[in-house]
Amino acid sequence: MLYFSKFRIISVILISLFFILIASSNLFKFENNLLNKKINLGLDLQGGSYLLLEIDNNPVIEQKIQNLSITIRNYFKDKNIRIKNLKILGQKLSFSVDENFKQTVLDTFNDKESELNPYYPRFKSHQLDIIEENNIFFVNYSTQGIVKLKTSSQDQALEIVRRRIDEIGTNEPNILKRGNDRILVELPGLDDPMRIKSLLGKTANLTFRFVTNNDQDSFGAEKLSYEDGSEEDALVSKRIILSGDNLLDAQPRMDSETNETVVTFTLDRVGAKRFGKATSTGIGKQLAIVLDGKIISAPVIRDTIASGSGQISGGFTFQSATDLALLLRSGALPAPLNIIEERTVGPDLGQDSINAGMIALAIGFVLVIIFIFVKYKVFGLITNITLILNLFLLIGILTIFEATLTLPGIAGIILTVGMAVDANVLIFERIKEELKNEKNNLIAFDSGYTKSRTAILDANITTLLAAIILFFMGSGPIKGFSLTLGIGIFTTLFSVYFIARLLTVLYVYRNKEKEGLI
Amino acid sequence: MIAFNKYYNQFNILSISLVVISLFLLTFKGLNFGIDFKGGTLIELRSTDSKINVSSLRDNLNSMNLGDVSVKNFGNETDFLIKFEINNNKNIIEEIKVNLDKSFGNTFDFRRVENVGPKVSAELLKSGVIAIAVALTLMLIYIWIRFEWQFSLGAILALFHDVLVTLGLFSLLGLEINLSIIAAVLTIVGYSMNDTVVIFDRVRENLRKYSDIKIYDLTNISINETLSRTLITSITTLLALLSIFFFGGEILKGFSLAMIFGVIFGTYSSIYIANTVLVRLRVSQKTVLREDESI
């Protein structure tokens, strides 16, 4: 254990220098690309917002089931099978057919080539499940069907969330999928998440529909309230003239005539055609502009609008018009999003945490160094040099991987400082014991290193196990703790067995004959 | 040499009582779960007006019907920590901001806002419990591979003792359990194990070396031989933790306190639980030799 080849000595020195250089790149700016790396600060240190959004898929499923009822009716109509008693029961639908068609219906649903009910060979499952009870068929989405549906609405929602956040222009947002119905949004440096929260909380489902005065409308009608509550509820047809999908662009504007803030929009070709037709046939009628089930305004059509552009007024402030335009530009969410977890840290608290963490690290470090020096003198000095290099190694590795440092992460570094001396202490204590029976310093040191090895390995493996579990189970800041604690174990082992041992060897060879060396 | 073994019985009784009291506290008093595990909202405020105090802030918030509101100073006189239960109002934070500005003028800086919904808090609690269970299991497997079963039992009992008594103390003092406490508990598990393993390693080595010393004295010799290491490591770890506790800011206080308790209990249990289990199971040289043959 005491032999070091020249090659090894040089390698250890080079590695140490390399990590000192890398670690210091956090403080200085290097031109070199390899060195120009920095540890990322977690949201709790640099300030920012963490939002966990959950997609409420129930309305999507209900909508799909509604569409499905029409599809089923038409599909079997073509085959001359009459669907009777078609009912929608939330996320399920039921119907019945004549006795002699029952098998045909079942076969259609269970056919692997079925157009009506797609089959997923990978999961050995159909999209829909069908069961028959007392001559009534019940159809609902299969487990796999729901998963597919959720995944697709998650993909869409992720895209829309990204567009909305990009429009606001925060720096380096982090938008990730979680499970199959959640989206994680991290917004560093964002002080007040109020605006983003309200923007993400809106589905932004825009429709243009006529206001009617009888509920005998062939498409059905529903009573909707006004967004600002300025007028009484109005009866609005369910027939959709235009939807948000037809918009090419939307911008906030100041209307020079009325001095009011409005949102102007441009329609695509299909939308422009439909809008032109609706405005020419509906002169004198009220066209309601409905956003997420609330009427923004319902102007009376005075003229045919064939240009494919128009404007929405509704008592906007400039801010609310800007937000509405943004929502319309980025598109509607497939389903409502709920914020189920939010953590926001202001930038000054982040800075306070950094300062407190650094002070605690400095004080903890100094206390440990003094204690070890008093206890072990020369070997204390060796341990302390090792400890300092260990810190550089740890910070260097975090820098190379551009890891994220959190406040608990700093605690992990401080704890590493406290626990890192353990390995050296185990070795030195063992050497002391060996020296009681062995007069030759070299032999005593050698066996001290050898005999303490299993205990050191055991001790570090147990801590490493705890760190690994934390890494996989923990979230955000806690992950940062497990990361520094875990990496700290490796750097500690390296610095003890290479750096500290090298220094010890150099010292012992010079003082071979000295008694009471340690 | 210190005669640790003279007090094996007394400290066993003490440990058993501590565990029983802790279980009693955990069952009847329960833990003070923070919003991470209970759901709800936490707001950290800093005021520029030193006249505002906890009670005026509390009166103001109570008028907003937030349910069970807790308001307290956080670190110093002008910093406040507000906590309340799960609230279904999506804009509650904005409303509180408006209300506070109206009542006190624009004096508050919202330094930190955390809002955890019921679903997330239930999941966090579940994953916290799983993490601790997985940690204990992995430690059990590790020590079972490394040592004879008598040693494993001793180490695991020591672990359970440390975790239970630390949580019991948190229950007694009504300290908040949040995500960072789970991290602390897991680190305690690692630390306590580490401490126990170092002593066990020596016990086993000595068992092979001396055939004529009874386990009662042999454990004592081993404890003494490793004692200075045990103390030095505990002291340096405690130095690091104390500096986190006193200088690391309010957010890390709970974490560092749990760890301080854990290190103290961990050191104690390695000596007085892990070793006494070996004594009570009458571990002898045969125990380790048999294992060697079977390999």
Class based on secondary structure composition and strand pairing of chain B: alpha+beta
Biggest pleated sheet of chain B:
4 strands, antiparallel
The radius of gyration over CA of chain A amounts to 35 Å
Helicity level of chain B: 55-70%
Tell me the strand order in the biggest sheet of chain A: 9-10-2-20
**Main sheet summary of chain A:** 4 strands, antiparallel
Helical stretch tally of chain A:
12
Order of helices and strands of chain B: HEHEHEEHEHHEHHHH
Distance separating the two termini of chain B: 35 Å
For this structure, the CATH topology of the largest domain in chain A is Multidrug efflux transporter AcrB transmembrane fold
Instruction: Give the overall form of chain A.
Output: elongated
Q: Any overview of this molecule?
A:
The complex is a heterodimer of chains A (518) and B (295). Chain A is built from twelve helices and 21 strands. Chain A is an alpha+beta fold. Chain A folds into three domains: 6-44 and 346-510, Multidrug efflux transporter AcrB transmembrane domain (Multidrug efflux transporter AcrB transmembrane fold, Up-down Bundle), CATH 1.20.1640; 58-146; 206-330, Gyrase A, domain 2, CATH 3.30.1360. In chain A, a hairpin with a 4-residue loop joins strand 5 (119-120) and strand 6 (125-126). In chain A, helix 10 (407-437) runs antiparallel to helix 11 (441-473). The mean pLDDT of chain A is 88. With 295 residues, chain B is an alpha+beta fold. Chain B has two domains: 4-34 and 120-294, Up-down Bundle (Multidrug efflux transporter AcrB transmembrane fold); 40-116, Alpha-Beta Plaits. Chain B has a four-stranded antiparallel beta sheet. In chain B, strands 1-6 form a two-stranded parallel ribbon. In chain B, strand 3 (69-74) and strand 4 form a beta hairpin. The longest helix of chain B has 33 residues, at 215-247. The chains are: A alpha+beta (518), B alpha+beta (295). Strand 20 of chain A pairs antiparallel with strand 5 of chain B, so a sheet runs across the interface.
